[in-house]
Amino acid sequence: MGFSKVRRIKIVIMLVMAGFVLGMSSYRTLSTRDGDPELMELRLPANFPKPVYDFEKNPVTKARFELGKALFYAPVLSSDHRISCSSCHQASAAFANLNTAISRGVNDCLGERNAPPLFNLAWQKEFMLDGRITNILEVPTNALTNPCEMNNHPDSILKVLKKDPDFPLLFEKAFGSTGISTENILTALTQFTVMMISADTKYDRYIRKEPGEQLTPDELRGYTLYKEKCSSCHTEPLFTDGSYRNNGLDELSKDRGRDSLTHLSTDQGRFRVPTLRNIEITRPYMHDGRFGSLKKVLQHYAADVKNHANLDPILKKTGSRGIALSAAEQAELISFLKTLTDINLMNDRRFINF
């Protein structure tokens, strides 16, 4: 074998090993108390900040995760035993409600706002579109008790679960006792949902310089446009800054938005900036689901931003309302936004009910 061929083989081996190291460094595996087999493996994305949820203080156990999954897909949690958490948060839509502007709950009751996706909750400080919940453990309570969602009462839920043939055993495995409490219900649901981490997109692999991942020319131009025109609100890597803004959907807001919590006129029509991750598959868009496509969303910003009293200053800093985007730029931006789709999350068997 000639020297040049041997050298080529060595180079290939080095490249493969380098790729392996890069792949391994793409995630940080959180240590699990002496390799405790009862704990779920947690792989935190290397390009993400430290999560708000303290996984070391509240480690996710396999038993609590499985209990949370069973509860997430259980229609018995609703007053009519027909609606589950998964009814409005579907795995195939990155745990949003695909093609549904406003979800319907028990007795076909129509809600008020578009159901947000549930992934990357571990990095959020506040929840719901108006930020009225600040403790992640309380997030499920809204759906369980809301009259137009599951319309139930904690005491009624406890009675149903205690009589169920399967749930007492699941609670015993998860918490060491067949006794069922509201606190343990919320803990299990939280442990299930905080594991929904979306960080395996084409964009992420490109940013982490994983072997063989490149953006196309259209995607790169779209990425540049995103950084110029969108990143001040939809900040990398979570693609939201977590703030509350008015984006000029109406001159007068039908939905008070954050004002419903703060009771400040300056908060009328302000809603939490949504993440752009998985935006391709979480349609329709806006707090009321009024836009059915990304094209319509960008057309709004380019030509139809209304002069609301609380319109965000960013949308009028050039002297005219909106964000200047030509048709070609809109197409390029959409090309980039599609790189934020996490197919692996939607196909992750841990979260799918079989």
Describe the fold and architecture:
- The protein is mainly α.
- The protein has three domains: 28 residues; 145 residues, Orthogonal Bundle (Cytochrome Bc1 Complex, Chain D, domain 2); 143 residues, Orthogonal Bundle (Cytochrome Bc1 Complex, Chain D, domain 2), CATH 1.10.760.
- 35% of the residues lie in helices and 3% in strands.
- It is built from 13 helices and four strands.
- Strands 1-2 form a two-stranded antiparallel ribbon. A two-stranded antiparallel sheet has the order 3-4.
- The longest helix has 22 residues.
- The N terminus is likely disordered.
Structural features:
about 350 residues, Cytochrome Bc1 Complex, Chain D, domain 2, two-stranded antiparallel ribbon, two-stranded antiparallel sheet, about 5% strand
Full CATH superfamily name of the largest domain: Cytochrome c-like domain
Distance between the first and last residues' Cα: 54 Å
How much of the polypeptide forms β-strand, as a percent range?
under 5%
Strand order of the largest sheet: 1-2
Concise account of the structure shown:
By secondary structure, the protein is mostly helical. 35% of the residues lie in helices and 3% in strands. The protein is built from 13 helices and four strands.
